[in-house]
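Data availability excerpt. The first of two example chains:
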Amino acid sequence: MERKVKVAAVSYLNTKPLLYGFRNHPVMDMMELSMDYPAKIAQQLIDGDVDVALVPVAIIPKLKEYHIIADYCIGAEGPVASVCLYSEVPLHDIKRIYLDYQSRTSVALLKVLVKDYWKLDVEFVATNGDYESNIKGTDAGLVIGDRALKQRKISPFIYDLSEHWMRFTSLPFVFAAWISNKPLPADFITAFNNATGIGMGNIPAVVAENPYDVYDLTTYYVQNISYPLTPAKRQGMQKFLGYLMAAQPVS
């Protein structure tokens, strides 16, 4: 290849198993790796600033072309623990919801559940920084990632988005996948797929490398998150994308 493949990944705890195998792997000679939060990486992939990214699947309709290049994802077949609506009051007493600025997929999933499953009449409030302190009274908040695990100890009402998606559709959910915005060489894809799967067989080592006293990471990696991109997850992803396309205003 003339240049290295530019790869971007999320710097959350949930990506640690996917990134574990990259160190000292031959694929690192073929790529440059950068880290940031999901929405920012998504924009980089849309703009062509990177070639491959672990991105929220909600951006797929915004890409001119897309290729899923790995057999692993950030998915869930039940409660995911780290993508939740938090509240001090029961679901149907919520008046406003603060939206997490860090993920487009989670916001889009919340809006699908609010409209089509829970059928709530609420106001959505965009955020661009710390907003968790606003989760009080009838104001709820969507919180994702590591901050969501901390919020579990604070809010009395927790509505896990992937758990409710499963109840709604009977399908698992894919939050993020390794997606490229252009065709890539087959040898790179093979090596990349191999590297991203190594952590699946080394969960105890991943946990040991990431001391965390807020939530049990073995539970998180083994029970909450489901990493293999199975046919059922692809089916769930297509159903979710169908909701997104239906919600797009006609231009």
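And the second chain:
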Amino acid sequence: MAVTVDDSTAGRERPVIADAPGSRSWARAFGDLSAGWKQRALWGHLGWQDIKQRYRRSVLGPLWISISMGVIALGLGILYSLLFQTPIETFLPHVAVGLLIWNFISGCVLEGSEVFIANEGLIKFLPAPLSLHVYRLVWRQSLFFLHNLVIWAVLMIVFPHPLGWSLLLAIPAFALLAINGGWIAILSGILATRFRDIPPIIASVVQLVFYMTPIVWSVDILGDNPAVQERARLVELNPVFHFLEILRRPLLGQETVWRYWYVVLAITVVGWGAGLVCMRNYRARVAYWV
């Protein structure tokens, strides 16, 4: 029995469909970051609402951010100035500005490790890029920082420092801190969704780093002691120290040390490289891991 084949469509040209980028692709990773940035009106509003919600029904509202920071800075500044026998007019601003910057850094690290876990409901039921939650986190921490700048302004009035044009370096310095907060949240947030032991480990490490970073103590004070002068220089092995100094020095009118900036720029490039690789390989799995 003969079988006939209908080849009436053999001569037709079939439409060519472009290959869509796979889940593990650089296009998807960069596309996520771009799409999240375009929704800045959304994460900007959500970040501000996070602060309002935290201080809901409070008389002073977000002013408690600055009040609590001011009380801690005043207490630690007076205590350690007496312990180290240093003038309070120089040491109190040193401690206060150090705490201000540290709160931003530690906030990005601690909350970054849980940025996707805390937004489990939105990730599962809202079709939004993952980077939206990262932008929201960095924006919220930036608002905290701006609130606390009131303390710096008060201290500069009470204890005047020779502020000059170098103060303008505080703007790119803070921008670098915020940029690094992004890759830290991406990297630690993705890892923490897969391994839930990561957040408590990070919390323990952050607490240890606080004491190893010259926030409530000063490298200059230790440098005056010949017995520990060489060991005091080991603080430069601490990457947080460099982030701290590029912003604290212009805010206090101190001389700019460019090697701190070079270290921060190198960390920024390497960190974002690691963050993008993690974003490329595991972005699609976060919704399942949370």
